Amino acid sequence: MGRGPSIEARKNASDAKRGKMFTKIIREVSVAARDGGGDPANNPRLRVAMDKGLAVNMSKDVIERAIKKATGELEGVEYEEIRYEGYAPGGVAVIVDCLTDNRVRTVADVRHAFSKNGGNMGTEGSVAFMFKRLGVLSFGAGADEDRVTEAAIEAGAEDVTVYPEDGAIDVLTSAEDFATVRDAMTAAGLVPDHAEITFRADNDIAVDADTAPQVRKLLDMLEDLDDVQDVYSNADQASLEQG
After folding, report:
1. N or C: which end of the chain has fewer CB within 10 A?
2. pTM of the entire predicted model
3. CATH number of this structure's domain 7-70
4. What confidence tens digit (pLDDT) does each residue in 7-25 have?
């Protein structure tokens, strides 16, 4: 009978994953502070990045050090924001957001991931038009639909989506109003289970069972790259998981 990975191996894998997550958040904090200043009260992007760090138990000292490096109080690394676009197998559109200190390395890594898994990189704007950038505040099963909807409208949200299968709710905002809506709803006693600014496809496309493993492998490989912050696609999640 085969044996699964040891406790130590699982812990090492978990630590590595946590380390990558911390690296991505620190880069996001750094760029947000560099571009909008180190005061989160006047920098919504920085507030979102800091909240993301605190939510995964990143220490305030680590976050503050990243801010000081970005604003010049401490010596730090300069990161550049780059977005790549392309297609996975089956015509699935993919957006890859990166923060890097070495553009040559990053584009080589991203191009390799696409080519290795049957995809191809496109030019700037080749798939971005299929997506909208928006804020999403997610409330889990059993959330009070009337209360959430009323608070969302009052806070200035753009839309509310209720999922009838389990009663979960998504409150949608513009990227610019995300922090304001989240703060207003939190003040009303409605703390979302998950909140982020993201890209959502206008229309998802189904992936057949033969193609799904290739698409998953490409998306996973891209997400695993050190310089990649976020990966978005218009693959229908249900078909992707069943394939």
Report:
1. N
2. 0.81
3. 1.10.10.200
4. 554 555 556 677 888 999 9
The tens digit of pLDDT for each residue in 176-222 reads 999 999 999 999 999 999 888 999 999 999 999 999 999 999 999 99
Mean pLDDT of the region 131-149: 93
> Do 59 and 187 touch, CB atoms closer than 8 A?
no
The token pair at 213 is 């493993």
Distance CA 30, CA 116 (A): 31
Domains of the chain by residue range:
7-70, 79-243
The CATH number of domain 79-243, selected from 3.40.50.1100, 3.30.70.980, 3.40.50.300, 3.30.160.20: 3.30.70.980
Taking every pair of C-alpha atoms in the chain, what is the biggest distance, in angstroms? 59
Q: Give the residue among 120, 49, 126, 116 at the shortest CA–CA distance from 81.
A: 49
